[in-house]
């Protein structure tokens, strides 16, 4: 990747927001059957910053990213709020203007590379098309640059791979190819939607290391979407925890891991295996499923699954407010009865459970 003109270093998270999402709401369906998948979500991403959107499947993470990219079907759906990128609201752009932005300024790495790549088009043509469309390169120059990109993301023998079809590559190579395509035009913002879900742990670690290296090298801002707090542990500067379509906790990474305040965040952390604990440490999954939610209008959506539930949780909707009791600055919390200690410190061992 080449440095942008006049830029030599990329301080993480400094300056005015590159992306500013305000009250983003996505509603599927109409009338009595309408379902609000994303409910008034607001967050910022600054130049060079990596921001995490974390939560279980169904909490609204991927829908948020698709709404930002304007990739949701318009029929039967409603998207409200604002998504300002470099001062321009992406939700108000025409389809043509958004297509010019997408891939050039804002790019996305999708969860399933096999379904994201065209199965009947050689890999080289798919990567080169991005450069031809947004950089105006001819086919020869775009092909050579495509080979350089594949080499950059760690695909061996890139010239030969350009002639192959997606099904001829391993899952890790396909994901690397998607990263090459996303970074081809050096976008200012990259959205990664669970890019390591279908990969084994070794390849997963390599992909995360690759993303971290490329983002730091190019100064690209990154939104990392995942259900696994372990994925963001060494990657994100700031973490937004989503539940039921709303942000329930926001904190800097180290502060969040040191002292989670929302019971849902604590449950996600308690379900992560830790090698340092050795044998005998029992994992504590979050009880129930996202189907057990209650509407936010009637209280806290997480109340039916919460170990810290009190009476008010089912009577009044908690607001997202500054958490003055939490560790670290700029923390936000949506909870009537937040955690006072890290649940990892209180998790029982197998011996304690048997006793």
UniProtKB/TrEMBL annotation:
It is found in: Cell membrane. GO terms for molecular function: ATP binding; ATP hydrolysis activity. SMART domains: AAA. Pfam families: ABC_tran (PF00005), oligo_HPY (PF08352). One of its GO terms (cellular component) is plasma membrane. Keywords: ATP-binding, Cell membrane, Membrane, Nucleotide-binding, Transport. Its main location: membrane. One of its GO terms (biological process) is peptide transport. SUPFAM superfamilies: P-loop containing nucleoside triphosphate hydrolases. Belongs to the ABC transporter superfamily. PANTHER family: DIPEPTIDE TRANSPORT ATP-BINDING PROTEIN DPPD, OLIGOPEPTIDE TRANSPORT ATP-BINDING PROTEIN APPD. This is Peptide/nickel transport system ATP-binding protein. It comes from Ornithinimicrobium cerasi. The lineage of its organism: Bacteria, Bacillati, Actinomycetota, Actinomycetes, Micrococcales.
